[in-house]
Amino acid sequence: MTEATTPNRQPATGKRRRRTRSGTDLSRDVYIDSAVNLIEMRGVGVLSARTLAAAVGADPTALYRYFTGIDDVLLAVADRMIGIALDRWTPTDDWLTSLANLARALYRVYANEFPLTGTAIATRTTGLPNEIRAVEITIGLLRDGGFDVEAATRWFRSLSDFLLGQAMLDGAFTALPQQIQDADHDTWRGLPERLTPDDTPHAEAAAHHLRSMMLESSFEASLELILAGLGVMARTSTEGGA
């Protein structure tokens, strides 16, 4: 098959390299690196062929030698984020532990290391190799737990939505100006003084816990709840099929 018959095929990383004005080899990876840096420093709204051109030191039209447009760059960025997490993940002998470690690896990349980028690309479906690898691994782990294909697919979807939604929430909060973050935390810290046992007995009773727990991400607690549920359902499924 010749390249002419596959017009949408992207060149492999490292091929069709050209020198930028600074002397750097131009490639897909250079554009992806620069896109991530721009998003983290200035937000996804600033991303354009012109701003990327300035970042890599090339003419704006050079972008189209490697990508179909800015959205194509964002999809490549999303796949890069998934790839970073997968490369750090190591499976264990226990499917639930492996699943938990995978979720944590993805969350750290999206919410902690690249919060603005994670928020910008969490809703996207890339169809690219790393995303497909993540699907294969996750459904495989759920199948190892005893779920049939339909159930494994259902719980893959639920786990993915939880993970990406939590990462977006935490990443978006991290991106707020520090004074706004501090003000929100102060609101929770001062909650007990605004409550009365007669009007809000349950909130008042929980106020001491709220003022500390609401200052932290709920990712680990929510993940624990989901994994516990999966463990119970897996045992039920296995026992029912025995």
From TrEMBL:
Residues 25-85 form the HTH tetR-type domain. It comes from the Bacteria. GO terms for molecular function: DNA binding. Residues 1-23 are annotated as: Disordered. Residues 48-67 bind DNA. Residues 1-11 have a biased composition (Polar residues). The keyword DNA repair does not apply. The keyword Plastid does not apply. GO terms for biological process: negative regulation of DNA-templated transcription. InterPro entries: Homeodomain-like_sf, HTH_TetR, Repressor_TetR_C, Tet_transcr_reg_TetR-rel_C_sf. This is TetR family transcriptional regulator.
